[in-house]
Amino acid sequence: MTEKLRPRHELEQALERIAKTIEFKDAHLELTSDARTENLLTFIREHFHPDEVLAKSLGYDMDEEFDQLFTIVHKDNLSLLLISDKTDEIIACRTIVLANRAKSFDFSKLKNDKLIKVFIFLTHKNEEMDVYKRFNIDTCIDFVFLGTHKKHRKQGIASKIFQAALQFSKELGINPVCIKGEGSGIYSQRVYEKSGFETLHTFKYDDYKVDGDIVFKDTGIHKSTKVYVKQL
Length: 232
Hints:
Pfam families: Acetyltransf_1. It comes from Mytilus edulis (Blue mussel). InterPro entries: Acyl_CoA_acyltransferase (IPR016181), GNAT_dom (IPR000182). One of its GO terms (molecular function) is N-acetyltransferase activity. This is N-acetyltransferase domain-containing protein. The structure is a single chain. By secondary structure, the protein is α+β, with helices and mostly antiparallel strands. It is built from eight helices and eleven strands. The chain has a seven-stranded mixed β-sheet with strand order 2-3-4-5-7-11-8. Strands 1-6 form a two-stranded antiparallel ribbon. It has a two-stranded antiparallel sheet with strand order 9-10. A hairpin with a 5-residue loop joins strand 3 and strand 4. It is globular. The two termini are about 15 Å apart.
């Protein structure tokens, strides 16, 4: 079992090799960096968050607390960005973080009630879905945000950057490679399932209630969050 990240320059070289196998028109893959963090947060705020089912249902808007949490969780800068060759703007992202058995996140310290509701929902079956125990691992690769710029959708970009992330995950230095992710809407769920991920659990929105009330209402065509896992 290996859990030490490879040096940054080796990860960048690995991504360059992967990028040669996946064609993007007038754009290139880039490993995120501290210099890109603010741009990435803006991208998520404008091109991911408005359509995210859970946040939209609760009327949750990204705030300073979210920005701080995002920065802390993504501190290793392992996320993949698709950058326009013409404008240098972010076209798509697949954010990647490392989760560790011994370092679970304490969301009780959060202040925004709506954000707390999302975390409680996503983690309320964690004991049943114990990925660490199931695969006998201490470190898991978490796929978090998958987003495409509004002007570049319906071109297969999300699927391509997802495939690049799968290949990149094998280059991190983590062994064995186990990836976990959630899809809160049918579009992200299709990407996971097309990539051969196993459905670990399905949380139906109509079935999830607190004090007898459905928490996530008016979700339209999106009926559940699915938790996925794949060992490479």
